[in-house]
């Protein structure tokens, strides 16, 4: 009888414990499971987002390459559509920022310099990598020169540093100085650019600029 009473007491104690703690135990278990499945769901979501962004950018690059065809108009529409999708749905992604660089390039080809500047400004605002910000800033200077906004280009360039883009930076210094009529400063800048561009494919074009300017300076 003593053993039975002990078992009954244990059962009663368990019932009482469950009344006091069962609810909080269930809530804790639900919270824990929600956290686990929520984390897995978030991981799955971010992976899908990254995959979609990569796919959109790949298609955009292919459209840019195809733009060299004889009739580029449909490809331009495709590039703009894909780029805007990336910017709207994946704004924090590096893919979106590179997409905006491509959109700026297309806008320049269409001589829509305001749109090109807007795209480059978006990259500068969104990008977290210094090199990407700097690249967008340097391209902004180039667009301003193309739009005959020489003073604005000079001002924009003065706020930048070469970083890993020394050849581009000094070439733009030369372009700005030449457009301002300062041939001596342009020659010096092009010489610095040539020194930095020793192994770059753009060196022949840069050398041609320097040679032409040298004869004018003489």
Main sheet overview: none
Coarse structural class: mainly alpha
Residues in helices, as a percent range: over 70%
SSE pattern, N- to C-terminal? HHHHHHHHH
Straight-line N-to-C gap? 120 Å
Strand content: under 5%
What is the average per-residue confidence, as pLDDT, rounded to a whole number? 79
Count of DSSP H/I helices: 9
- Kindly state the number of beta strands: 0
Low-confidence stretches: none
Radius of gyration: 31 Å
Taken from the alpha-carbon principal axes, the silhouette is elongated
Summarize the helices and strands and which ones pair or pack.
Blueprint: H1 2-66, H2 73-89, H3 94-109, H4 113-126, H5 130-146, H6 150-158, H7 166-179, H8 183-196, H9 203-217
Helix pairs in contact: 1-2, 1-3, 2-3, 3-4, 4-5, 5-6, 5-7, 6-7, 7-8, 8-9
Can you tell me about this structure?
With 218 residues, the chain is an all-alpha fold. It has 9 helices and no strands. It is elongated. The model has no long low-confidence stretch (mean pLDDT 79).
């Amino acid at each position: 009888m003593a053993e039975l009473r002990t078992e009954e007491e244990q059962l009663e104690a368990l019932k009482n414990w469950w009344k006091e703690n069962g609810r909080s135990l269930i809530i804790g278990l639900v919270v824990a499971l929600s956290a686990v499945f929520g984390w897995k769901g978030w991981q799955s979501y971010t992976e899908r987002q990254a995959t979609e962004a990569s796919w959109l950018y790949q298609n955009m690059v292919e459209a840019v390459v195809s733009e060299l065809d004889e009739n580029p108009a449909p490809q331009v529409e495709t590039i703009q559509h894909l780029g805007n999708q990336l910017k709207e749905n994946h704004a924090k992604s590096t893919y979106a920022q590179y997409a905006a660089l491509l959109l700026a390039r297309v806008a320049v080809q269409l001589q829509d310099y305001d749109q090109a500047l807007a795209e480059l400004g978006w990259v500068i605002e969104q990008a977290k990598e210094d090199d990407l910000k700097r690249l967008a800033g340097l391209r902004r200077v180039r667009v301003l020169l193309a739009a005959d906004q020489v003073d604005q280009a000079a001002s924009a360039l003065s706020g930048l540093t070469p970083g890993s883009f020394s050849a581009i930076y000094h070439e733009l210094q030369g372009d700005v100085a030449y457009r301002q009529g300062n041939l001596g400063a342009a020659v010096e800048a092009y010489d610095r650019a040539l020194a930095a561009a020793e192994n770059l494919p753009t060196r022949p074009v840069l050398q041609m600029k320097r040679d032409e300017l040298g004869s004018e300076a003489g």
